[in-house]
Amino acid sequence: MSLEEISTIAQNCIQHNPTIVLGSGASIPHQIRGMGSLADYLHNNIDVEDPKEKPIWTQIQTALDNGEGLEEALQKTAAPPAIIEKIVHLTWEAIAKDDLALLQRAAVGKEIFPLSDLIRTLFKSTNNTVNIVTPNYDRVAEYATDVAEFIHATGFTPGLIRRREGADTILVRKGNSPARTVRIWKVHGSLDWFEGDNGTVISLPLSQHLPDGYSPLIVTPGVSKYERTHDEPFRSAIQGADAALGRAGAFLCVGYGFRDTHIQPKLVERCRQRNVPIVVLAQTLTDETKHFLTNNAGSAYLAMEDCDEGTRIYRPESPNGDVVRGQKIWTFEEFNKLVL
């Protein structure tokens, strides 16, 4: 397959104002640690002293030592609430450190955001809204939107001490027209979402330490995440994501492994019902991604992953992949150069 053919297929996706799905692979290039690094951090820093709980944490550590992924290890051994609380707090601590470093680089123009370039392109049309759906806690999407000089909304009111947006969506105007807005649906929460001791949900500026009296509102891997997402603000975020996925004219998935049950069903449903264009970019396509492409993606998909020779391309006509030599167009930055 030639670069010209790939570009034509990819541009067709972009022209349909895709809903963007960002996985952890979209954050790793910005030095946000992925699941493997996070697993190492938790393994080395969680200290369990309770003699009843220590064997449970040892089982989880052993699973990680044996090469199991963090989510797999936590689903295999149900952790008690005290350990879950430690996991949540240390996960927040680790990702927040990376995120704040990214903010510093972004503020002085030392970080390149391919997502910013894509957002600018999508708003060159009549689009007033770009939807991003992500299970990531970090604020890569927010920073990219700021760098692109557009407004972002995550379900909270504007300001520094932000309350939940509620049933009535807040619309910002620029001059006489609605401001073009990137709506970011964070189905597993965000680093700047917190819950107070009295149950109050709030969004606060991020600092190096948790604010007194507040706990992070992030859903960490493991069995407990399915319970937590029935609560607010996760439920509203998932409902918003469902709506964005359910009406999408196309999908662009970056670094997403097609494993998340809060995103997957609507994405599959839309592709099956409408055969919408979908482009997938990843360093390595997961087995779940390949299953999706084969069984659910329809006939309008294009997937790209890294290989030694360049980039391996998957299309309905070449389900086992063809190699484009000497080109790393699976990366977000190089993909943009091809299609924008």
Q: What does the model show?
A:
With 340 residues, this protein is α/β, with parallel strands linked by helices. Helices cover 39% and strands 20% of the residues. Helix 2 crosses helix 5. The two termini are 19 Å apart.
Helix content: 25-40%
**Main sheet: strands, sense, barrel:** 9 strands, mixed
Radius of gyration over C-alpha positions, nearest whole angstrom: 20 Å
Structural class designation: alpha/beta
Total number of helices = 12
Strand and helix layout:
Elements: H1 3-15, E1 19-22, H2 35-45, H3 54-65, H4 70-76, H5 81-107, H6 114-122, E2 129-134, H7 140-147, E3 151-153, E4 173-174, E5 177-178, E6 181-186, E7 189-196, E8 201-203, E9 214-218, H8 224-228, H9 234-246, E10 251-254, H10 264-274, E11 278-282, H11 287-295, E12 301-307, E13 310-315, E14 318-325, H12 332-339
Helix pairs in contact: 2-5, 3-4, 6-7
Key terms:
3-stranded antiparallel sheet, 9-stranded mixed sheet, alpha/beta, 340 residues, globular, 12 helices
Brief characterization of the structure:
With about 350 residues, the protein is an alpha/beta fold. The chain is built from 12 helices and 14 strands.
